[in-house]
Amino acid sequence: MPSAALALEFPQSLAVYEKYEEAQKAVDYLSDHQFPVQNVMIVGTDLKQIERVTGRLTRGRVAAGGAMSGAWLGAFVALVFMMFDTKATLASSIATVGFGVVFGLVWALIGYSLTGGQRDFTSIQQVVATKYEVLVEHRFAAQARELIAEMDPMRAAQEQARIAIEKARAEEAARLAQTPAQVAQDSTQHS
């Protein structure tokens, strides 16, 4: 559930865009025409996860990465010792970095061997939206639709058609979800 700062009281769909920049452009257009944009939200929908494989993961790469991480940890600990221990020497600092390298190397290799070869590659991941819906507070919906229609009349007509189709689908789904008793009751009320 979004926080209160990210919520609208009764949001209505204004438009759906394929790219964030298009949704941003629509909100910018509203802002340029003195629309109270604090009553607008852009919501990324239809999320998908993208993973880009960046390389092979070998025991050597794991060892090198672990050693580097350990060296950074050792250097940080050595720096803390040098700041607070007046007896710390350059030799003790180098030894601390060395212990960090060994610790990082061993820990990384243990972690790698526990995976059992299940994931022998490196990658980067990102969750992205495939559509961006612009929502507007209900009491400003008509004004926003008029402005968007001025901005792009063809898109506005397409959006109105999309909303009408969604409404018809929802009504049809509600009708199909009725029990036989509800259908009979509705038919007697309309007679």
Please explain how this structure is put together.
With 191 residues, this protein is α+β, with helices and mostly antiparallel strands. It has 2 domains: 4-52 and 125-189, no CATH class; 58-119, no CATH class. Helix content is 57%, strand content 21%. The protein has helices spanning 20-32, 59-84, 90-114, 141-151, 153-176, 180-189, and strands at residues 11-17, 40-56, 121-137. It has a 3-stranded antiparallel beta sheet. Helix 4 crosses helix 5 (153-176). The longest helix is centred in the middle third of the chain and has 26 residues, at 59-84.
List the helices and strands and how they pair.
Elements (H helix, E strand, L loop, with lengths): L10 E7 L2 H13 L7 E17 L2 H26 L5 H25 L6 E17 L3 H11 L1 H24 L3 H10 L2
Antiparallel strand pairs: 1-3, 2-3
